[in-house]
Amino acid sequence: MTKGRAGLAARTSVVLALLFCAFGGWSYAQADRDGSLTFAASRDAALAEGKRHVEALTGFDGRKPEAALRRWLDASTGPLREELREAKTKTGPTARARITDAALTALDDRAGTAELIATLEVETDTAGGGAPNTERKRLEATLARTAEGWRVRSLAAVPVGGV
């Protein structure tokens, strides 16, 4: 009688394991066809490219203004790009930006638009060789998906509100 119960328990365990594997396979197949994976990949790409481009747009190499302008144009699209194209470049102080945190507040994958908020530390070297100045900034960027990937369409400072 004990042998019969052991055999039944073994068969039950095998059936349960097969059911678990079947459910896992079905679940994986459903997730693979699910649009949420595509949406997540798009969100991750928009965030990564948005952060990189906001950093580029808030930095400036005062010794190489033409290279800085090229970086700005590569990072932008739409009205912002047209505005930057009209900018006159000249030597001046150097600013290095580093994003400390960023997040997407909106993403419309079908329309190819996203909204990003970011906090940055911007270190500015004075032309006279004085001590560098570091400022914290909060920016909001509108991103647009282009043939080259996500680019910044508009960039604005977020005012710091007091209580």
Blueprint of the fold:
Blueprint: H1 2-33, H2 35-58, H3 65-75, H4 78-85, E1 94-108, E2 113-125, E3 133-146, E4 149-157
Antiparallel strand pairs: 1-2, 2-3, 3-4
Helix pairs in contact: 2-3
In short:
This protein is 46% helix and 31% strand.
Describe this structure in words.
The chain has 163 residues and is an alpha+beta fold. It folds into two domains: 1-33; 39-157, VirB8 protein (Nuclear Transport Factor 2, Chain: A), CATH 3.10.450.230. Helices cover 46% and strands 31% of the residues. A four-stranded antiparallel β-sheet has the order 1-2-3-4. A hairpin with a 7-residue loop joins strand 2 and strand 3 (133-146). The protein is elongated and about 90 Å long.
Task: Please give the CATH class of the largest domain.
Answer: Alpha Beta
| CATH architecture group name of the largest domain | Roll
Shape: elongated
Mean pLDDT: 88
- What's the multimeric state? single chain
Number of strands: 4
- Elements, N to C (H/E): HHHHEEEE
User: Strand count, sense and closure of the main sheet?
Assistant: 4 strands, antiparallel
Major sheet: order of its strands? 1-2-3-4
Q: What is the CA–CA distance across the termini? A: 77 Å
Strand residue content = 25-35%
Q: Evaluate the radius of gyration.
A: 26 Å
